[in-house]
Amino acid sequence: MPPSQKISVLIVDDIAETRENIKKLLQFEADIEVVGTAKTGREAVAMAKEKRPNVVLMDINMPDMDGITATELIVKDVPSAQIVILSVQSDADYLRRAMMAGARDFLTKPPSGDELVRTIRRMYEISKTRTVSAASSTAPGLAGRAAGAVRGKIISIYSAKGGVGCTTLATNLAVALHSEENKTILVDFNLQFGDVGVFLNLQSRHSVMEALEKDEELDPEFLGSIYAAHSSGVKALLAPASPEQADVATAAQVKKALEALKHEFSYVIVDTPSALTDIVLSIFDVSDRIILVATPDIPAIKDARIFFDLVDALEYQPNRVMMVLNKVDKRGGITAANIQESIKHDVSAQIPLDDRVLYSINNGVPLIVSGRTQPAAQAMLDMTSKIVAGFSPVERTAPAAQGVPDDKSKKPPQRRLFGG
Ligand SMILES: Nc1ncnc2c1ncn2[C@@H]1O[C@H](COP(=O)(O)OP(=O)(O)OP(=O)(O)O)[C@@H](O)[C@H]1O
Ligand SMILES: [Mg+2]
């Protein structure tokens, strides 16, 4: 890549030796350039404004201003800069504060070279989409940030078979995507047996059914009154408490609710049941991305093939569907390459089988919060950045030319595979 397109990195740490060590880890990466080092939070803020780096590697404890405050200020002034916290303190509370301040990722000191480089590259993918759209905005500051935000993308998570990890990935994806700039909501459309509330340890008297059953426009104030709020900042519309309450939901109501949410949120993540009902098909119709989750086993490959036949029949653009393999375990003997070969569709991300995923659910804290540096969490973050990278600024500024929503608008909205 030409020098001007290198990933620019700012290193912030009060200890000279740490700054040097990180610099050394990055010196042989042809696509990464360290554009500055700062030894205090104040220096970091000033340097970030001047150099506008793609990525800031930020220490927490520093003399004049701590890393969390510096993060807050940089996020405000240089929204395209993605901040990665590097700290010896890896406890969940510290991490949560850093993430609330707007940091994008978290690494424990000392990071391995691999981990650091992988994280920087992933951050760059996110930063690219922000820089271009912020630059195309005329007004700096808040207006620029709004222009840099992704708007109204619906991402649905589906699998043909139950228990493969849709809710796990949906909850982690929502937490990974949410930021001040890109507010995110997770909607549980597994109306009968939805468990988003359990996964995020949320209780609410309200459910998504209230949005579906309301005849009038779904205004922001009403929607605000029925969300549950997670400590990460993610909002959630939960499934109703008992399965029979879901009986009355219609596909038209679901579409209307999702359209309303698109106006309020950058990302609307939809967890779906494993059944091709009218409601699920209507969710697909309005989705910008459909994440097909499968496990590496023969039944799942069979189901994935059937699913891609359906996708063909519905004439969705192939890039609207991303396949993710979950619970990947070398001992199973089926690789992503085998699956790609068999179904002629890319596997976009692979999440390893890891018991910590189960513990995280039992604790009601998504793994990317409680164990962000774990391989399974890193794989979920990789999956997230692939989804984000797909929403390029061109697509967002010129939807008609790129045509992601356009294959939807060309077709009658009630298009159905099975009659109707
Ligand atoms: N990568 C993983 N490693 C180990 N266990 C996992 C992984 N992903 C999910 N699980 C476990 O698999 C089980 C099913 O996950 P989850 O509930 O997310 O699947 P689902 O597709 O939403 O299922 P349902 O059909 O019940 O809605 C959970 O117990 C979860 O802890
Ligand atoms: Mg589920």
Descriptive report:
The protein has 420 residues and is an alpha/beta fold. It folds into two domains: 3-143, Response regulator (Rossmann fold, 3-Layer(aba) Sandwich); 149-409, 3-Layer(aba) Sandwich (Rossmann fold), CATH 3.40.50. It contains 20 helices and 13 strands. It has helices at residues 16-26, 41-51, 67-77, 92-101, 113-135, 142-148, 166-177, 196-199, 208-213, 220-226, 251-264, 278-286, 298-313, 336-343, 355-362, 367-370, 375-390, 393-397, 399-402, 406-409, and strands spanning 7-12, 32-38, 55-58, 82-87, 105-108, 153-158, 184-188, 228-229, 235-237, 267-271, 289-294, 321-328, 347-352. Strands 8-9-7-10-6-11-12-13 form an eight-stranded mixed beta sheet, sandwiched between helices. It has a five-stranded parallel beta sheet with strand order 2-1-3-4-5, with helices on both faces. Helix 13 (298-313) links the parallel strand 11 (289-294) and strand 12 (321-328). Helix 2 runs parallel beside helix 3 and helix 11 (251-264) packs parallel to helix 12. It binds adenosine-5'-triphosphate (ATP) and magnesium ion (MG).
